[in-house]
Amino acid sequence: MVQRPPRKPPGRTPGKGSGKAPAKARLSADDWADAALAAMSEGGLAAVAVEPLAARLGTTKGSFYWHFANRDALIGAALERWAQTQTEALITELEAEPDPERRLRLLFAEAIGSAADDPLEVSLLATADDPRVAAVLSRVTERRVAYVARLFAEAGFPEAEARRRGLLAYSVYLGHAQLAHAVPATLPEGSGLTEYLDRSLDLLLMR
Question: DSSP of 122-133, one letter per residue?
Fold first, then answer.
């Protein structure tokens, strides 16, 4: 049965002390990048604007200019942050599992579950005509397909066949992500979704 690995939600540790309100932590560049990604998931690149993001973060534009020269720099940092947290970090996490077939099932469940929960990936695909987005999407897609192909190769498939199956698995993932946000009623829920994911991997692993 496919089960998504647990992911700790981001958060800050509350301050300790005498009853006084803890000093507000200075926002980091990653805080701004995360806020920009949240805005992109809601309204695409057009939603990334400094003043609304400052209001979202409860700060001023001065904090923004401490970290970034301009809006384009923030967009670039946000896209790199997305590539790191949604691809490289997940791959690193999965490498703790020694069995390649089990890794495939965990990856499939986590990726599809995350895409269904968060519209950011679909939003980025919708803005792929922007050169900044296109460059990152191209790099991330190749990285993901290559990693999945490697797992199929480790599971015993010849290199060319592993690449084909890696690409097919990624196509299934993207199709599911699009359906989850466009017409979610077409997809199974609960135990039906688990069975659907298991069966999809069974077919992809069939020799």
Answer: HHHHHTTTSHHH
What confidence tens digit (pLDDT) does each residue in 86-130 have?
999 999 999 999 999 999 999 998 988 888 888 999 999 999 999
Residue 92 CB partners (closer than 8 Å, separation 6+):
none
| Cα–Cα distance for residue pair 207/195, rounded to 1 Å | 20
Backbone φ/ψ region at 156: left (φ over 0), alpha (ψ -120 to 50), beta: left
DSSP state of 189: -
Give the C-alpha separation, 59 to 35, whole Å: 12
Q: What's the rounded mean pLDDT across residues 51-78?
A: 95
Decide: 40 and 124 in contact? Cβ < 8 Å: yes
Give Dmax over CA atoms of the chain in angstroms. 65
**Residue for token pair 């890794």:** 103
User: How many angstroms separate the CA atoms of 42 and 155, rounded?
Assistant: 38
Dist CA 157 CA 161 (whole Å)? 6
pLDDT at 182 over 70: yes
Cβ atoms of 93 and 5 within 8 Å: the answer is: yes
Helix 191-205 and helix 159-182: axis angle, to 10°? Answer: 160
**Which residue type sits at 58?**
G
